[in-house]
Amino acid sequence: MNNETPTPHKVLVAIPSLARGSKKWRDTGTANDAYLGQLVNEYRSMSFQVDVVVFSDAPKEVAPGVELRVGLPTQDPGSLPFAHKQVFADRLNDYDLFIYSEDDTLITAKTIRAFLRVSSALPENEIPGFFRFERGPNGALNYIDVHGHFHWDPQTIRTRGEFTLAFFTNHHSSCYAATRQQLKRAIDSGGFLVGPHEGRYDPVCTAATDLYTQCGFQELVCISHLEDFHVEHLHNKYFGTRVDGADMRRQVDVLLRLARNGERPASLFPTESKLTDTRYSKSYYEPVRPEIISAIPRGARSVLSVGCGSGNTEAHLVERGLRVVAVPLDPAIATGAAARGVEIVAADLSTAPQQLAEERFDCLLLINVLHLVPDPVNVLSSFGALLPAGSVAVFSVPNLSQLPAVWGKIRRDPRFQDLGNYDKTGVHFTSLGTIREWCRRAGMRFESATPVLPVRARRLAGLALGLMDGFLASEFIAVAKRA
Questions:
Q1: In total, how many domains does the chain have?
Q2: CATH number of the domain within which 225 lies
Q3: How confident is the model at residue 428 (pLDDT cuts 50, 70, 90)?
Q4: Which of 10-24, 191-205, 289-303 has the highest mean pLDDT?
Q5: Domain co-membership, 26 together with 113
Q6: Which of 70, 72, 372, 380 is the least crowded, having the fewest Cβ atoms under 10 Å away?
């Protein structure tokens, strides 16, 4: 990025920092004060004027020249991050740039200049987002917000002048920035000056994402200059558990190639449910699970995996000497599996069976796929046709007949009240009966379904001698055989 980047004259920074601490916020109060001091020193080292306001639930010591505002919007300590919004609105005409960050998230002058330069190239309804990382002792990077169902959306790739951008589905990076014009647009939208609330994110994360989720902006990450939008999470508490720099580089390189070629591939199927409870969405980074590995026949030598994410399970099978072919969720996430020896088939749900028509596999693997695809019977049938008679399909689905979900639906809990309506929830209602019916209609013989019990339910299940497993299980690992 060149040196002609605009420089702000005045910047207002808002940082929430608890004094008393909160279990709900996973914060011990003064434990983050060292990070807060590091943030303040960073802002003071910048060549432009930066004013810092710290918001706290109780009086606390802050550096000279830092404004301290004490008070919670509500009695809940988790409401503290929302306190900055009215201050931003009150001082709209006094500053060029507004920055919000949690007290352990470091934003540099380089990142501020990058934000301003890219913003100047975007239409008014688009805004640059940031990418949070942690740094290991050897300098290696871990991208801590890349986990679970969060992923790059290849359909959103776009070019704006010299910049290539794409949407990453996790809005949360513990911070945001907005120019005066962008903040005014957010305020005028009616979605910014709102009270503490939560939805898909908890209140702390929601305060940092409202700008993107309910103010009319499309948040985009500048993938052509990704490092310029790095923000460091000083806590380093997730390092080693998330996506590393090499994996992220592979994903971004694929996105840049797609941008050059003008390709905008869709995900294999809608991977996120429409429910506020995200546990029913498809994880892109599923771990290797013994329950699934043990369901694959010992004599199997080839496996077809449909809905492959980062490929942990598939790569594990490759290491055991199996041939594994995968139909991935999208080209970006497929790079991890491909790098570990998994054969990738670039196709969609309708064309992949045709491309593989001459192949036969000992096992079909569908991990958390069938409850999300529009037509689970067709998927099971079309890919099941690639199995010789007597070979098996192994699939996992969440148990939507679990007691908490059923009780939530009875109580009209907003998280569960539309269960059973795929169009509204993006999730098929699943139970043992549903699994059996899908198998029958797909021309496969149902063999077994192993209930996976949450830790808290295991004692009750034992007392019920297994009779309640169908209601207590969080999911089922099912096996069906090609007739």
A1: 2
A2: 3.90.550
A3: very high
A4: 289-303
A5: yes
A6: 70
Read off the pLDDT of residues 120-155 as tens digits, 9 standing for 90 and up.
Answer: 999 999 999 999 999 988 889 999 999 999 999 999
**Mean pLDDT for the stretch of residues 382-399:** 96
Residue 69, CA distances (Å) to 20, 338, 384 in order? 15, 51, 62
397: containing domain? 278-482
Instruction: Please check whether residues 257 and 282 belong to one and the same domain.
Output: no
Q: What is the pLDDT of residue 36?
A: 96
The model's pLDDT over 100-119, given as tens digits with 9 standing for 90+, comes to 999 999 999 999 999 999 99
Q: Are residues 109 and 194 in the same domain?
A: yes
Whether residue 51 is found in the same domain as residue 180? yes
